[in-house]
UniProtKB/TrEMBL annotation:
This is RQC P-site tRNA stabilizing factor. Key component of the ribosome quality control system (RQC), a ribosome-associated complex that mediates the extraction of incompletely synthesized nascent chains from stalled ribosomes and their subsequent degradation. RqcH recruits Ala-charged tRNA, and with RqcP directs the elongation of stalled nascent chains on 50S ribosomal subunits, leading to non-templated C-terminal alanine extensions (Ala tail). The Ala tail promotes nascent chain degradation. RqcP is associated with the translocation-like movement of the peptidyl-tRNA from the A-site into the P-site. Associates with stalled 50S ribosomal subunits. Binds to RqcH, 23S rRNA and the P-site tRNA. Does not require RqcH for association with 50S subunits. PROSITE patterns: S4. One of its GO terms (molecular function) is tRNA binding. SMART domains: S4. It comes from the Bacteria. It comes from Butyricicoccus pullicaecorum. Pfam families: S4. The lineage of its organism: Bacteria, Bacillati, Bacillota, Clostridia, Eubacteriales. The keyword rRNA-binding applies.
Length: 80
C-alpha cells in the first residue's frame, strides 16, 4: 500500500491529499530516509511524522486496504 494511503487509512493524517503534501514537504521519514507518497509500506517499517514542533514515531503492524474507524489504531504502534 502506498504511504499516503496508509497514513489516511490508519487515521494518522486526516486526508490523503494532506498526507501527499506532507511527503512532498519532506515531513515524513520511513526507516531513517525521506519518503515519497508512492513508497510501498511494509509491516515493520518505522514512520516518523513531523507535526510542526512535535514528531510522532510509529511502527507499522499491519497493512490493510479498508479498516473501520475503531480498528484504525491497530495498524500501528506508537514508539516513544
Amino acid at each position: 500500500m502506498r504511504l499516503d494511503k496508509f497514513l489516511k487509512v490508519s487515521r494518522l493524517i486526516k486526508r490523503r491529499t494532506v498526507a501527499n503534501d506532507a511527503c512532498d514537504g519532506e515531513r515524513i521519514v520511513v526507516n531513517g530516509r525521506q519518503a515519497k507518497a508512492s513508497y510501498q509500506v511494509k509491516v515493520g517499517d518505522v514512520i516518523e511524522i513531523a507535526f510542526g514542533q512535535r514528531t510522532m514515531k510509529v511502527e507499522v503492524l499491519d497493512v490493510a486496504e479498508h479498516v473501520r474507524k475503531d480498528d484504525a489504531a491497530a495498524l500501528y504502534r506508537e514508539i516513544l
